Amino acid sequence: MSTILGIESTAHTFGIGIVSDGKILVNIKDTYTTEAGGIIPTNAAKHHAEISEKIYCEALNISKISEDKIDAIAFSQGPGLSPCLLEGIKFAKHLSKKLNKPIVPVHHCIAHLEIGKITKAKDPVMLYVSGANTQIIAYSTGKYRIFGETLDLGVGNFIDTFARNMGIGFPGGPKIQQLASESKNYVELPYVVKGMDISLSGILTNLKQKFNSKNYPKEDLCYSMQETVFAMLIETAERALAHTGKKELLLGGGVACNSRLQEMAKKMCDERGVKFFVPPNNLLTDNGAMIAYLGEIMFKKNGFLFKKRNYDGRKILFEEKDFDKLDIKPRQRTDEVEVLWK
Ligand code: ATP
Ligand code: FE2
Q: Which residue lies with its CA nearest to atom 18 of ligand 1?
């Protein structure tokens, strides 16, 4: 039996989750939002620094777990915004020292994927659609491989930028979904799939021009944006399913909260005879539980750092001196991570 506390701080959200033997005991967060304009990394980091201790105490209270029952501290090491990541690692090291417990560095994108296993998906192709990232990922020979991705913007950032252009605050996704549901009038937009990859910057320019021309209602543009961009995502995901021969599709990342995207993905899966999985919304957007969840899997396989050389008699992969050197990895890619826990 182990109990792991996970810290998420890669971008707008500071979250803490506690997981014990794969069961989520608590998953709380506080998200930096704006009424208008986008996310300013240093402001988001300031938010995280101010809120961390409060969220930590609340997590302990809600889960009724006392500090001494925590076996390890997992945190999001990257990728993400450096100022935000730095607040996360600072808090993780502080807790690791205070509780005298190991620290587990977790890759944020892979955590988005691994938490999907809670739906009982075993070996899925994952359509990972979040703010900064848009990738089609599947496991093959020791790593999570990227079968397709965006060549420029992440789909969440694309949606948020479009929202900002229309004077909607951050995050734009839920508001755009609402506006899209009020129209059925399709306006032609560029459809940009290049092999297994997609590109969004041309569509963004086109949408901006159409919005600025004042000839198109917001609702029509939101509807058409969703229909076009989600079709591009589903097309590439379907091709990855065909290529890998895998029989499961899993959605992950904040944009996967979108019910229209879920509907299109389910339809494609039904037509192909593939099983479709999507975790609940609070596990799709950034959260601490997914970091604790993967952290626990890694912890059980000795992928952690500790000040002492021997921990419970288990072999430790990292040396003691590495603890102080342990740093954030703002640009680490999914396919750089050796998956040692499988
Ligand atoms: P990354 O994982 O790339 O670091 P992130 O951490 O910023 O990205 P998430 O919390 O996974 O992202 O997702 C946030 C994004 O999800 C935002 O861009 C937001 O607009 C988008 N989003 C949330 N709900 C919806 C929705 N219903 N429809 C579309 N997009 C949505
Ligand atoms: Fe994320």
A: 156
